[in-house]
Specification:
The complex is a heterodimer of chains A (118) and B (140). With 118 residues, chain A is an alpha/beta fold. Chain A has one domain (3-110): 3-Layer(aba) Sandwich (Udp-n-acetylmuramoylalanyl-d-glutamate--2,6- Diaminopimelate Ligase, Chain: A, domain 1). Chain A has five helices and five strands; from the N terminus they run H-E-E-H-E-H-E-H-E-H. The longest helix of chain A has 10 residues, at 78-87. Chain A is globular and about 35 Å long. Chain B has a single domain (5-139), classed as Heat Shock Protein 90, CATH 3.30.565.10. Chain B has a five-stranded antiparallel beta sheet, covered by helices on one side. In chain B, a hairpin with a 3-residue loop joins strand 2 (60-67) and strand 3 (71-78). The longest helix of chain B has 21 residues, at 37-57. Chain B is globular. The mean pLDDT of chain B is 94. Classes of the chains: A alpha/beta (118), B alpha+beta (140). The A-B interface holds A 32-36, 38-39, 43, 51, 53-56, 58-59, 61-64, 79, 87 and B 17-21, 23-24, 27, 37-38, 41, 44-45, 48-49, 52, 104-111, 113-114, 117.
Amino acid sequence: MKLNEIKEILAAEVVCGDGLLGREVTSAFACDMMSDVLAFAKADSVLLTGLVNPQTIRTALMLDMQAVVFVRAKKLTEEVIALAKESGIAVLSTDYRMFETCGKLYAKGLKGSGEIDG
Amino acid sequence: MAEVVRFHFDVDGNNFTMAGQASVEVKKSLRQLGISPETIRRVSVAMYEGEINMVIHAGGGTADVLVYENFIEIILADEGPGISNLELAMQEGFSTAPDNVRSLGFGAGMGLPNMKRYTDSMDIETALGKGTKITMRVNF
């Protein structure tokens, strides 16, 4: 699924990475616990989270994830946005809560990290 | 076996905001060396967990990444409290991290297990009251 499509489905605001929305993600991982993200998330995926701090972005970067979607209309600090820009990670923000965000994307065919190979 | 390139970092134990930045720098440098993305991913995740651990538990330390012809070695050394029960510490879900660390997204008891999962070998030397040295290898 392309990031553009995710943006539309979630009526999301693009915080940074406008030019990256043509990228394709193969799966999603939804979690606020970064150690679990590090254990289970796949490369070329999107992270759905409500945890806003620099470690969220660094975690996504370490795993070669393409984008982070912040749920529950979280406000981001300048520091987090600057780090995302520098890291080449697209950041979206949606008003939907976590369950709604996951459900909407899953219903449109985006797979979970446990459902794909690699 | 001569090492090809070495990176050294001092990890600040008093600045959680910066925790993980050394791993970000290593990732960039390994990309410039033309190492494969999957190898870089494994090195980055293992080092990142270790770096966060040093900040949470040990008041910081040092991180060295040595690139050899066929493998990458990550050496994390601190002068923190040491690990009192290594067997317990290796169990998924076991954590001694304070609650404020959980609010930052860590402290789930996945740090050491993740480091083992992403590397080909991991050796831990630890002494109570003296510190811990972890040596990990990722082959490629």
